[in-house]
Amino acid sequence: MAETLTQPGGGLDMTQGRPISLIFRFSLPLLLGNLLQQVYNMVDSSVAGIFVGKAALSAVSAGYPIVFMLTSAFSGVSIGGTILIAQYFGRRSYEDVDRTVRAVYFGITVVCVPLMVLGILGAKPLLELFLTPQDVLPHATTYVQVIFAGLIGGMIYNVNAGILQGLGDSKSSLRFLSISCAVNVVLDLLFVAVVGWGVFGAAFATILAQGLSAWLGVRHINRRYPFIHIRLFSRQVDMALVKKSLYLGIPSSISNLQYSIGMLVIQSIINSCGTDFMAGAGAAAKIDSFAFMPILSFSTAITTYVGHNMGAGRLDRVRQGVHATLALSCGTCALMALIFVPLGRFIMSLFFGLGEDPAALDAGMAYLLRIMIPTPALAVLYVLNATLRGAGAAILPTVSGIVALWVVRVPAAYLLMDAFGPENMFFSFVIGWTVGLIITGTAYLRGKWTRKSLFDPPPLGEELL
Q: Could you give phi then psi for residue 7, rounded to 5 degrees?
């Protein structure tokens, strides 16, 4: 059966057509968007480093994890809204889609103001907590404060992207992000290189570009989807839908937050092993991030696919889509490993400035061999977690992630480093993935998630029984 397009808006109708083709078509713009996000984040660093200096470069690098950590903690309404919209859209319940959009926008207006205040007032204390050097601290504080002062643009962009993904449209957000990225580059050069505003200029350019992408998204959704009417301060808000969005989204927020904190702990372990080891592992991690991007894109696609088909009552198609996504994800990971592992030493020496530094190169190769080769296990874990979330079983993937990271991976990293040397701490990653996969895989095979109903969520914790 050939793929068809939904009539309203032109997004992909995931309830019709070959699952593997639909998943691939939906994932490709997401993958390109992830790559653009990396460019987006790199532009501020590059411009600040070139035109201001090392302290400014370090300030942007130090500030980004703080921004990511705080925003991920409050992303629940958006994530939950995406899942609800996908299921309502699969049911062709367009009035409920509009009600959900209103609920999501109400949610972000409620959380945005306190989050902005928290980011502005808490910037310096948090940076000090993470041991930011004193010569970098003033610049990093300015960067974080400006980003949070203009946070509403970035939050609306992400909400719009989630709405469009729920509607089967992954292309439009890529177009808005491309425009925003180009504007960000121009404004960065103008404010930093020409006007001389330094780190403030880099941050100001970012929030203006994000504001533009937010406005483009709102205009597109209102024009393209006649059954949706976005208003920032709508008086007609269904509080039951706000609660459902939180029910679905808060577990994902917790998962994102605990993961970002956990990786900071892992990084501190790596940092304790010396400069050479830290440099090699950092370079290898950048290479590995390219293997992770397809995993993230495929898992986002299967969330929408599952939502559409669960809403339409097409459980047979859900399982077909999961199998297709597993094949795409694992095959891509295997291909990445075949390319990057043999070329790892060359790439790190050429592109990451390690040159003739054998200790750093050895550390980087230890990372790639122990993490990138078994990455298909991570792909399976992400796809199954995304499947459960798309069906409405949002709590168990979070529990799986917490156990895998804090009960297994972090302790294993310390134990492996002490017993077998620093390079073997990287085995803690695959050990954690395996434990997480056992938890999530068991839940998937048991099949309770197939009987989920987002329209009458169970009491907290029932899905774990």
A: -65, -50
HSE (side-chain half, CA atoms, 13 Å) at 344:
32
Q: What is the mean pLDDT of residues 395-416?
A: 95
* Alpha-carbon torsion, ordered 375, 379, 385, 389, to 10 deg: 140
- Give the pair of three-digit tokens for residue 255: 């998962």
Give the integer Cα–Cα distance in Å for 215 and 209: 10
Q: Which residue has the tokens 């198609």?
A: 317
Residue 451 CA: distances (Å) to CA of 317, 458, 464: 15, 11, 13
pLDDT tens-digit readout, 189-212 = 999 889 989 889 989 999 999 999
- The per-residue pLDDT for range 267-317, each reduced to its tens digit, is 778 878 887 888 788 888 888 888 889 999 999 999 999 999 999 889 999
Helices and strands, counts by H and E, the chain: 16, 0
Instruction: Please identify which residue in the block is written with the tokens 């080769």.
Output: 373
pLDDT value of residue 320: 96
What does the DSSP 8-state code read for residue 403? I
Half-sphere exposure at residue 145, Cβ-oriented, CA atoms within 13 angstroms: 14
CB 227 within 8 A of CB 95: yes
Residue type, 84: L
314: left (phi over 0), alpha (psi -120 to 50) or beta: beta
| Percent of the chain scoring above 90 in pLDDT | 49
Whole-prediction pTM: 0.87
Reduced to 3 states (helix: H, G, I; strand: E, B; else coil), residue 310 is helix
Cβ atoms within 10 A of the Cβ of 203, count? 28
Residue 225, CB half-sphere, CA atoms under 13 Å: how many? 28
* 459 DSSP 8-state letter: P
Model confidence over 420-439: pLDDT tens digits? 999 999 999 999 999 999 99
Terminal-to-terminal C-alpha distance of the chain: 38
Chain centre distance of CA 240: 27
Q: What is d(CA 96, CA 85) in angstroms, rounded to the nearest whole number?
A: 8
Q: How far apart are alpha carbons 265 and 254 in whole angstroms? A: 17
Dihedral sign from CA coordinates of 370, 376, 380, 385: positive
Per residue in 114-168, pLDDT (tens digit) is: 889 988 999 899 888 876 778 888 888 998 899 999 989 988 998 999 999 999 9
